[in-house]
Amino acid sequence: MKQVRNLILTAILPMGLLVGCGETQNKQVQETDKAWQIADSIRALIVAPTFAEKDFVITEYGADVDSTVLSTKAIHAAIEACHQGGGGRVVVPKGTFLTGAIHLKSNVNLHLEDGAKLLFSRDVADYKPLVKTRWEGMECMNYSPLIYAYGQENIAITGNGVLDGNANNKHWWPWKAKKEHGWVEGMDNQLAAVKKLTQEVKDRVPVEERIHGDGSFLRPPFIQPYNSSNILIADVKIINAPFWNINPVLCENVTVRNVSVVTHGPNNDGCNPESSKNVLITDCYFDTGDDCIAIKSGRNEDGREIGRPAENHIIENCEMKDGHGGIVLGSEISGGAKNIFAQNLKMDSPELDRILRIKTSSLRGGIIEDIYVRNIEVGTYKEAAVLVDMYYENPGDFMPTVRNITVENLNVKQGGKFGVLINAYEESPAENLKIINSNIEGVDVPIQANYTKGMKFENVTINGKLVSEEDVQSSSEAEFETF
């Protein structure tokens, strides 16, 4: 009788374990489904602006197809006429037009027809007067972004034309002070100005007194709508940027659709929404000299005082080639970030360093939470598929928080050095990182993590081996390898 009882228990126990395992998986599915339902509700809030069916062709306002002649005044005249006339399209026809800074106004769609190119001047005088801008998350008065809007609504940049920032190793890029980008010893560069601006931010100098421009060598971003709403950037190709490419700051309701960014200069991030809310980035192509998409919310005191997190972002159906990271949060993230969703992405390049990258420090502070990534197909990358780095900058007095990150259906054919890499503070471990139904092949170090809390791997294989709880535990006990 005792033998029968033991046989029954032996039969029941595995079934109980299976039921328990099934319940856990079902619960996890329910949690992720609920999260993506939130994404759907966010999507419903993001509505691209529409415009009156009126065209204002820049050649009718004096724009010259001779690419050696500035057409800035003509473009401004067309924008003003469109704005005053109730809105519509400011049309750039086929041809190459040289211009300085372009300032968009409400209800204006800057539309580039097939074969049209806006070629931006290399003369800093064409980016004056100085405007209120953000430079690497710090507010200041600097050269105007190449395309700028402040306090506007219902604005767009559309069409199949090309935006050419005209930067190279002789123009704009050497200001970074990197030899690989044309700088040689003794040349002017940004280093002193960055140090000065960082101190001005720390000392809380009023923004209008943080005067840069001439003598500072702070490169302007390409496209920066600032404190604006209802924005569409669609179909254009962006090349040769001086600095960051698409950088909406303190904006709401932003759509970036079917845009191609191909530029390999220093800090040539593809799309950096900063302290913005309700952002959709879809069907885009990024091949960049820095992060492909980097979500930000201000640096240090500026980010904390303004206190506007990056929130409600959806990234989908994009392709990433070269870059420091595919989907990135930070490092200018002092205002925090929440409700970030990325899905259906393709990444593949030996010059793509990371797939999902979170970079912060106790100099930055801020809360990064509720990040959901799924359905990512990766050929190869260089450093890590998932990276949380809390030592990106020098330490400070504002401990960051990173929590609630779910990565699902991540498939890597040939990984780089690390599969998952967590470098966190003991006082603030990375919390609730979950990787589900994923496969990573070809990495040197499957998991390296020092301080985590609630990290889980569910149905994850790395280098052909199913990741167990013991593997996760041993990853934190092994000697931490620098990277």
Structural features, described:
This is Glycoside hydrolase family 28 protein. Belongs to the glycosyl hydrolase 28 family. Helix content is 17%, strand content 38%. It has 483 residues and is α/β, with parallel strands linked by helices. The protein folds into 2 domains: 235 residues, Single-stranded right-handed beta-helix, Pectin lyase-like (Pectate Lyase C-like, 3 Solenoid), CATH 2.160.20; 184 residues, Single-stranded right-handed beta-helix, Pectin lyase-like (Pectate Lyase C-like, 3 Solenoid), CATH 2.160.20.10. It is globular. The N terminus is likely disordered.
The protein's oligomeric status is single chain
Distance between the amino and carboxyl termini? 61 Å
Using only CA atoms, what is the Rg? 24 Å
Question: How many β-strands, per DSSP?
Answer: 33
Poorly predicted parts: 1-19
Proportion of residues in extended strands: 35-45%
Which class of secondary structure composition applies to the elements? Answer: alpha/beta
Total domain modules: 2
Please give the CATH class of the largest domain: Mainly Beta
- Major sheet size, sense and barrel closure: 22 strands, mixed
CATH topology of the largest domain: Pectate Lyase C-like
**Number of DSSP helices?**
5
For CATH, the homologous superfamily of the largest domain is named as Single-stranded right-handed beta-helix, Pectin lyase-like
> What is the correct CATH architecture of the largest domain?
3 Solenoid
Overall mean pLDDT score? 94
